[in-house]
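Bench notes, afternoon.
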Amino acid sequence: MLMLALGAFFGAFRSRRDLVLENLALRQQLAVLRRKHPKPRIGAIEKLFWVMMRRFWTEWRQTLHIVDPDTIVRWHRAGVRLYWSCISRRQVHGGRKPTSRELRDLIFRMVADNPTWGAPRIHGELKMLGFDICERTVLHWMRKAPRNPEPAKRWAAFLSNHREAIAAMDFFTVPTLTFGVLYCFFVIAHDRRRILHFNIARHPTIAWVSQQLREAFPFDSAPRYLIFDRDTTFSTETVKTVGTLGVKAVRTSIKSPWQNGIAERFVGSCRRDLLDHVIALNERHLKRLMTEYVRYYHDDRTHLGLDKQTPADRKPVEQTSAAGKVVAMPRLGGLHHRYDLAA
């Protein structure tokens, strides 16, 4: 009687919403228990019901009798995992909408037509045309714009048309066994790929480079143009020395070795033909090796850029009979050979 009295007392202060929810929870449990199965089974709808009751009613534990409250929590967590797994399977493209191919082609066209324009200028023109695009997106596609081949074509045409009046100079490093790294300086002519001068130094200075240039072009034999990169050794003093020899200095752009391709190709050939197969002991040894290689490079080695000819204009045999004997003459200690007909 006391418990009934207390229940009636506290029930008078409960809201109508709590009473309706409690009545609904009890009726749902009774419906489950009235099923004719040997053991009442709780279906997906009942599970969803109790998950929603837990979500919106704070006193749901007081009326729960058919399962443990932790089971409701486990159902809730399983439902959350199922929800997010279904969401993750959907291919939802977030962020801004992709840039159309037509707009990208227009950006590439503006970059090609206006080499001095930056992203703000191109973005402004696109806004005037009514395109809704971000400036950072314009900058992104500007960096992927194909390079204009016209400057490279003009430079290649200049080198081809003036090859008799062009020479180039450059450095490359060679590790040695006793003296560390040595620097090899060379000057090469563009017309027949001839090495006009080379020398070896441990620590090349500006004065040393100037002296090498005077030795490379004696008696008014200097070309019209001399191409070299922006190495720190090739300073303004070097440019002045080149000017006193009556030569016009042409410095390549930053990080553009292709503009001095003849010199870079000689460096690659020298490494592949000689330096990758020998160990230079000291400065004297390296100079002897380079002297032999330059002789082989001029007299014996055929060049693709010279239509399979040699810089020293090696004369080919006019006609060879099948019975003729071919002899091999070793070059560079047997690394390479020259082949001729036996006398």
